[in-house]
Amino acid sequence: MKVEFFLSSSAFRQAPGEVAAYARAHNYGGVEWYLDLLRLPVAPSARAKLFDRMRADGLGARFHAPAADMEMGHRDPAIAEVSLRYLLMYIEFLAEIAPTILTVHVGSRAIPMELLAWERTLDHLRQAAEAGRTRGVTVCLENLKGGWTSDPNRLLAMAEAAGCAITFDLGHASASPFVREGGTLEAFRAVVGPRIANVHVYEIETPDGRHLPLEDTAGHGPTLDALLAGGLHTWILELSTREDLEQTRQALRAYEPG
Questions:
Q1: How confident is the model at residue 92 (pLDDT cuts 50, 70, 90)?
Q2: Is the pTM here over 0.85, yes or no?
Q3: Helix (H) or strand (E) holding 211
Q4: Strand 100-104 relative to strand 137-142: parallel, antiparallel, unpaired?
Q5: Among candidates 74, 93, 95, 94, which has minimal Cα distance to 83?
Q6: Any idea what DSSP says for residue 103?
């Protein structure tokens, strides 16, 4: 089975129509819409117009929840509650374009884990996952390069406790303490594999947050093959620029449909 590639809108600063036009012109199967850049309108008519345009584009649509101003596990209960309600609002909106996948973060922007509350995090993540299940939205917790989710065993424990799926980000895993201190990317994937429902593919995230492109699959090949063998044949290329996006696509050409 070959791979269907989605692009992440994080590589663009254009309007949704222009992002979709690029995806169609370059034979991508869909877009993961990064909602730090594209907000979902509260006004029903405006939201319907946005979703109607996405359907008309004929592309698959997945979504990445806002991360810059949302931390549902914050130790400050006011911040945590507002973040959860914000996320639940987006899940309600996305029910209108379901079934789809929504990726969420815990510990965004390298926030110290001391500013998070473990039990509150699990409770709020559980509420989000349950809201998604009843609305056709698969909520996926993403592994980050630091913090709780950078450890595969803790990430799995969080996902199991909350009843959510996982977005496996290869670049974050590559930059994690688990891999830097002697583990392997494939060992990371093997731990969380049964709960992976979404995949972000690129080389590695730098300390300043840039997603570096793949130049070849020498390092990631075994993990990519294992993901494909496990039925994960939609891969989101999550790069910082169009040039890096296309370089990564070229590195993955062996996985393209013939």
A1: very high
A2: yes
A3: strand 211-212
A4: parallel
A5: 74
A6: E
